[in-house]
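User: Before I run my own analysis I want an independent prediction to cross-check against. Here's the chain; please return only the structure tokens and, at the end, one sentence I can use as a sanity check.
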Amino acid sequence: MATTCAACSSSQKAKTRCSGCKEVTYCSKACQTSHFPAHGNICPAFQKYNCFLLHADAQTSRPPLDEISGQLEPFHLQNYGTETAEIGELKRRLGWSGASEVGKFYDHAGSDTWYYFVYGQRGGKREGKVRNEVANMVCGETHGDVAIIRSGPAGFDTPENFTKSALVNALVFYKTHSRDTVFAERERNRFGKRTGFDLSGVPSFDAN
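Assistant: Structure tokens:
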């Protein structure tokens, strides 16, 4: 089926499409690359927020791990910066009875000075909420929706805002990598840089 290329307006059969919104099509990779500066400014996948909700229910017939992007929803926090304020806003806006940390994980690109921090609802499993298959990759057994922000160890700058695309890439990374192994490696790297110690032979390490 022919569609209009968003870059050159050609009506050739689409050969590629935006991997973020999956709506805008192109007749070639070259056209997609040339159009990115314009499309990237309006594509929902490349807008920056300080928090995303990861829904447990994918609402699709596809397996949840194949539909990660569709389970993420921007949820910009007005009170970002302290755990007490963040939890208070999550409870107020989402109607959660309580919230607490359910996990944290590093990104796919090698960062070792900040990580994604995950809030979940208290008692999610006991209250019969749906198992969150995507969150399980990075948090262990998790039920119900979760909220994901960026955080990090004291003394390091954390980039507050991030795109949906960056978060999707990080989550997809854990389809083929162990969260525990990656976390231990990044912790060793950061501690080693800070102290000059070689911890490459230490099997498990948490510097927090």
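Sanity check: The two ends are 54 Å apart (CA to CA).
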